[in-house]
Amino acid sequence: MIFYDPTVVYQIYCKCLAESSDTFFHLICYLDLASHILVKYMLFLPFAFLLNVRTKIVTGYKKLQLYGITIFVLLMDFLYYCIIKLSSLRYLYIGKTPFFLIQIRTYGAQIKHEYIIYPILMLFSIIVIFLTVQRFHLIRTTGISAKLATKNQSYKINKNLIGIFHSVKNVVYSFKLQIDNLLPLAEPEKNSELKKIRDEINQYVEHISTVLTSNSDMDSILPSKTSAKSIIETVVNSIKKPQNVNVQTEFPNEDYCVFADTYYLNIAISNVLKNAYDAVADTGKSENVKIKLFSEFDSVVFAICDSGAGLDKKTQKNMFKPFYTTKSRIVNWGIGLSFTKKIISAHRGHISINSKKNIGTEFYI
Q: Are 306 and 361 a contacting pair, CB within 8 Å?
């Protein structure tokens, strides 16, 4: 920066003339060359780092962030270039004479329209940088407009769902009343079966009621520091697995801690694990369900992988939409995964799916 002040440059020029040799000027040349090399190195260093990191990333969320960071770095370099051009900065001094220190460059003065073009390009770069940061989740915030839109949409969906639920609940409870009336008349061996059906109806209605009447903003979440490994162990032990399913767990040597509401996070992981069990059970063969826990930069990742039939692209795209299901609607309403995504989002997390037909499905939380 010392070369940008005309007074300082003139003093350096006088110093060079006063010296019997050009040693002082040569020193300036080499320092100038070193600064240019440093700037170029710092411009291209992030790309070398990103190329190296790309091979280590597993989750789709982090891959999306990687693309965002690459675009971000390119835009910052472009912004830096515009600043240099706008400032009409110097070229390399090496190979020049000391007189070059005080030469006045008329390039910037001759092309005056550049003083309009470059500020416009800089403004455009800054706008795109902010959009990139938001679109690729480079910071853990949500825009005000997105929050309002999500809240409004969730309110409308929940309002309609609760109305539908009450009408369905009335029908379901009418069957429950019929069962209660039949219990005194039924034979002892059939009595236990009727009670079992009644209990399942109660549990099913209670589960749907909990999901649909939950607050759309998940204000009731109370995160605390908890063991990620213990969450998986609790979920695995609480769900009855089909006979043809072989569950495998893969944990790191160190136990990762997460800040989460264990009640809600257990529900979220349970919903994903039940889907994996169903996918494997449908094959009728002895298959594996793997549950892995690992870290990826600043995130703790829960991975649930099954070797089921897999899902096509359309199903993957609609998987987290309310009421979307590929199963029978008699026992499945398609609200489990949409509720799961709401829980994960409330924890400032992300859930993604990677599936291939006839190979299997991977969920990453």
A: yes
**2: helix, strand or coil:** helix
d(CA 308, CA 276): 8
Q: What residue has token string 């009343």? A: 177
Q: How much helix, strand and coil, in percent to the nearest 5, is found in the chain? A: 60, 10, 30
| Crossing angle for the helix pair 262-281 and 228-238, to the nearest 10 degrees | 50
Find the helix packing angle between 23-54 and 60-87, rounded to 10°.
160
Residue 33 in tokens:
């060359």
**Could you tell me the CA-to-CA distances from 220 to 13, 22, 191, 214 in Å, in that order?**
70, 74, 40, 9
The C-alpha atoms of residue 18 and residue 135 are separated, in whole angstroms, by 58
Instruction: Give the N- to C-terminal CA distance of the chain in Å, as an integer.
Output: 48
Contacts of 23 (CB under 8 A, 6+ apart): none
Contacts of 205 (CB under 8 A, 6+ apart): 169, 172, 173
Query: pTM for the whole thing?
Result: 0.62
120 Cβ contact partners less than 8 Å away, ≥ 6 residues apart: none
Supply φ then ψ for residue 138, to 5 degrees: -80, -15
Q: Give the pLDDT confidence of 198-255 residue by residue, as tens digits.
A: 777 777 666 666 655 554 455 667 888 999 999 999 999 888 888 888 889 999 988 8
- For 251-263, what is the mean pLDDT? 89
**Per DSSP, what are the bridge partners of residue 354?**
362
